[in-house]
Design goal:
This protein is an all-alpha fold and 490 residues long. 67% of the residues lie in helices and 1% in strands. The chain is built from 19 helices and two strands. The protein has a two-stranded antiparallel sheet. InterPro entries: AA_transpt_TM (IPR013057). Belongs to the amino acid/polyamine transporter 2 family.
Length: 490
């Protein structure tokens, strides 16, 4: 399919991926952190999450065709033995969050319309299954826009309630005695609530599909989409976080909607919007989940299976990918460069490689709108992840939906599981993995053609290194706090 996504629709999809039900937990983090520290931590999460997205987009530009970009493609070129681990992090993140959405759907709708919890969970399949069967992220743009309208209503509801209560003078005591303006209110909950904020900003699972489907996927346009998405998400988080905390102070609950009068018509509409937003957000998580599961299957077939590459096109594409080595960091003698470039166009069996793709991870110097410098060989020019055969696409979809719905119907609380997902999956795909890929890839195309790494790329490599240590630090501290608090409560 031809790329057809606009910057506006891509921004809508990315914002909807980032901003979900976690928005209503942001005020609770302000309760522990206080206003000043809460705002600073939100801005820190915004900058670091945006940096992770930017580093991933820079990595995509080291490919001959940037529309081939995916976590799997880049991992197979840089850390092929770790590729399944990277995809497992994606699976944990998307499966865990999608599962929590189904549980929340079952908790919300019975209070609005009556009926059994399980009935509403099953009823959600009428909308979720058709949306999960679409094959392009851009086809979800209209459902994303509807979800954004629902989110806008909830944000306006929280902000307007704060303004009206403030105007009536009913928040004087709360603002004076309950709100911590400059100090941290709860040091023990500081790291725990920071993981909530980081979890809320997770959106990298849909970055590569967005890049691949953008009609204009130049670095400038991608940066515009990322900046707009992070800015809009941050504005929503701060509006909801501050308005909710300043309204209820120390009484702020983990799900802000529960602080309001359940009999209010406006709150009932808000709960309906929240439930609708969950249903419309689920397919945005399901898309990368299905791709990650398919990637793991292909990796297993390549590594341990006996599949015949000539019979299975998926294995054929990525058997060649698994043989590619990272970029060779050598500088050729200028007097031999022409001969070397001519020789590089053939593989070990003297076969001309298609579309100028070089064997063994060599570099081709190109000048086009999508890649201004040297580019790395990639396994295929027309796929951005391990290709699906039709039967496998529907089989993976069916198995994932059945397993998620079965768990959602049988288990009612995922508080600890969701905390662990946020501490491991979110930090891995938002910081650690982008840092590993960026440190290996950014600037390597310049070295491969005998040029010095530009100062800007050297800066981005240092940023990538920072993301690795930042992600690991947040992961281990969040895991420790989550498990420590849970053991104390037990």
């Amino acid at each position: 399919m031809e790329p057809s996504s606009s910057a506006l629709s891509s921004t809508a999809n990315l914002v909807k991926t980032i901003v979900g039900a976690g928005t209503l937990a942001i005020p609770y983090s302000f309760k522990s952190d206080g206003v000043l520290v809460g705002v600073l931590l939100t801005l820190l999460a915004a900058v670091t999450s945006g940096l992770g997205l930017f580093v991933l987009s820079k990595c995509s530009k080291t490919l001959i065709n940037p529309r081939n970009s995916s976590f799997f493609t880049l991992c197979m070129l840089t850390y092929p033995t770790l590729a399944p681990i990277f995809d497992l992090a994606m699976i944990v993140q998307c499966f865990g969050v999608g599962l929590s959405y189904l549980v929340l759907i079952g908790d919300l709708f019975p209070g609005l319309f009556g009926g059994e919890r399980n009935y509403w969970v099953i009823a959600s399949t009428a909308i979720i299954i058709p949306l999960c069967l679409v094959k392009k992220l851009d086809q979800l743009k209209y459902s994303s826009i509807l979800g954004l309208f629902a989110l806008a209503y909830i944000s306006i509801l929280v902000f307007s309630h704060f303004v009206f209560e403030l105007a009536k003078g009913e928040l004087t005591e709360v603002l004076k005695n309950d709100v911590s303006w400059w100090k941290i209110h709860d040091f023990k909950g500081l790291l725990s609530t920071f993981s909530i904020i980081i979890f809320a900003y997770t959106g990298s699972m849909n970055l590569f599909p967005m890049i691949n489907e953008l009609k204009d996927n130049s670095m400038g346009n991608i940066t515009l989409v990322i900046n707009n998405s992070i800015s809009l998400s941050t504005a929503l988080f701060l509006i909801v976080g501050l308005s909710g905390y300043l309204t209820f102070g120390n009484s702020t609950l983990g799900n802000l909607i529960l602080n309001y009068d359940p009999n209010s018509v406006w709150i009932i509409i808000g709960k309906f919007c929240l439930g609708s937003m969950l249903i419309l957000s689920f397919p945005l998580l399901f898309q990368p989940l299905r791709v990650a599961v398919n990637n793991v299957i292909i990796w297993i077939e390549i590594t341990f299976g006996n599949a015949d590459p000539e019979e299975d096109p998926q294995v054929s594409e990525y058997t060649r990918a698994s043989d590619l080595r990272p970029i060779s960091m050598t500088v050729e003698d200028p007097t031999q460069s022409n001969n070397a470039l001519e020789a590089a166009s053939y593989d070990a069996q003297d076969r001309l490689l298609p579309n100028g793709t070089f064997g063994n991870g060599s570099i081709e110097s190109q000048d086009n709108s999508n890649n201004e410098r040297g580019t790395m060989a990639v396994p295929t020019d027309n796929e951005h992840h391990a290709p699906f055969v039709r039967s496998r696409f529907y089989l993976i979809t069916a198995l994932l939906l059945i397993s998620m719905y079965t768990l959602a119907l049988s288990v009612e609380s995922f508080a600890l599981v969701l905390s662990l997902v946020g501490a491991t999956g979110s930090t891995s795909i938002s910081f650690t993995i982008p840092g590993l890929l960026g440190y290996k890839l950014i600037g390597s195309d310049s070295l491969a053609v005998g040029k010095m790494i530009p100062p800007r790329d050297r800066f981005y490599k240092r940023c990538s290194l920072f993301l690795i240590f930042y992600g690991l630090s947040v992961m281990f501290l969040s895991l420790y706090i989550t498990l420590f608090n849970n053991s104390d409560e037990a």
